[in-house]
Amino acid sequence: MDFQNTREFAQQLDAKDKLAKYRDEFHFPHVNGKQVIYFTGNSLGLQPKRTKAYVDEIMDDWAKLAVEGHFYADKPWWDYHERFAAPLSKVVGALPSEVTVMNTLTINLHLMMVSFYRPTAKRFKIICEEKAFPSDQYMIKSQVKFHGLNPEDAIVELKRRPGEHNIRLEDVLAKINEVGDELALVLIGGVNYYTGQVFDMKTITKAGQDAGAYVGWDLAHAAGNIALELHDWNVDFAAWCSYKYMNSGPGNASGAFIHEMHHNDMDLNRFAGWWGHNKERRFLMEPNFDPIRGANGWQVSCLPVIALAPYLASVEMFDEVGMPALIQKRDLITSYLEFILGEVDKEVNGNFEVITPTDPVQRASQISVFLHGEGRSLFEYLMKNGVITDWREPNVIRLAPVPLYCSFEDMYEFGQVLKEGILSHKK
């Protein structure tokens, strides 16, 4: 498409946008009395307006039914989580039995590593990406230490080539081949939080498993953002948070995936709890753990349904929209944002450097850009003028044009504010 850096052109794109109506489904903050341009859905998604009704329903049931709400609420609490199985499985490309909701992201990754990081004297190494999100780094190191191993020996980081911002697929495959028989686990973020790079999960999963290792994915920046086919890719396990692209609220519940090939493997270690016990016999209070056959068998504690309610509101919205429609708009609006950045760069005689891959297959709803020659004062200017974005040292801004609630006119308007901010600093 031949883009134009005009308000009229952006408005024309909005008029053709089949998802435009969903913008009104969200609450937007306001700055100086004006609705903001929101680019931080990769950190915390906006609140859907329908969320309150889902939470209020549980609060009302609690008030009217008390403990009886577990079984007699309109959405009984004891099986509330089962409502996620069908719609959430479509978001991540899984069988309904392969997905569950529980805990929070890093907790779920720890629980998955109990089952899928099983080091031996020979096979004990973990491949991960350098500069992964710090929580993943801390989690992996602590797991390695728990097994009495030295992180410097056990952890193998995938590195970027000098002068490059992204990790090449051929380098990932080469590293898997190099580690070979010592490889126990591959655990990478499906989308890098800093650069927005999307990894080829299908190819990497096969390579890791061909080497004899388990392969898992942290999908914090992938769930609700990119096309996932976890079942068909034969992924062993995955986990994701729900509060970024899936708009479930700050720090809210996590989703987890365990491939069905592992559901009946009773030799897998797991940290057990009664909510993962045979559902039909749970209240018999039996002494021996009999796990549910499916991802729900990895649950530990009774689920916090008040926290799950906002997530269910969002998941049902995703089910209405469908990932194909989201991805179609995502690709177009991200490309338009990239175009706007390029136009502004020329107009201000700047030195922008986009570090997100330009190949649409390797990027999703994020553009990370080095604003060479600019400092944090520009970020502060944007924030004060109604553009909520994310700053990363030394001078990178991350922009996530989330297709559910960002408009094409937002992209144009952002370009105008960005240009004004840069020019004001040059005066």
UniProtKB/TrEMBL annotation:
The modification N6-(pyridoxal phosphate)lysine is found at K244. InterPro entries: Aminotrans_V_dom, Kynureninase, PyrdxlP-dep_Trfase, PyrdxlP-dep_Trfase_major, PyrdxlP-dep_Trfase_small. Pfam families: Aminotran_5 (PF00266), KYNU_C (PF22580). It is an enzyme of class 3 (hydrolase). Pathway: Cofactor biosynthesis; NAD(+) biosynthesis; quinolinate from L-kynurenine: step 2/3; Amino-acid degradation; L-kynurenine degradation; L-alanine and anthranilate from L-kynurenine: step 1/1. It comes from the Bacteria. Pyridoxal 5'-phosphate binds at L105, T106, F133, P134, S135, D136, D218, H221, Y243, W274. It catalyses: 3-hydroxy-L-kynurenine + H2O = 3-hydroxyanthranilate + L-alanine + H(+); L-kynurenine + H2O = anthranilate + L-alanine + H(+). Keywords: Hydrolase, Pyridine nucleotide biosynthesis, Pyridoxal phosphate. Signal peptide: none annotated. SUPFAM superfamilies: PLP-dependent transferases. Its cofactor is pyridoxal 5'-phosphate. Residues 164-246 form the Aminotransferase class V domain. One of its GO terms (molecular function) is kynureninase activity. The keyword Hydrolase applies. Its EC number is 3.7.1.3. Homodimer. Belongs to the kynureninase family. Catalyzes the cleavage of L-kynurenine (L-Kyn) and L-3-hydroxykynurenine (L-3OHKyn) into anthranilic acid (AA) and 3-hydroxyanthranilic acid (3-OHAA), respectively. NCBIfam families: kynureninase. This is Kynureninase. The gene is kynU.
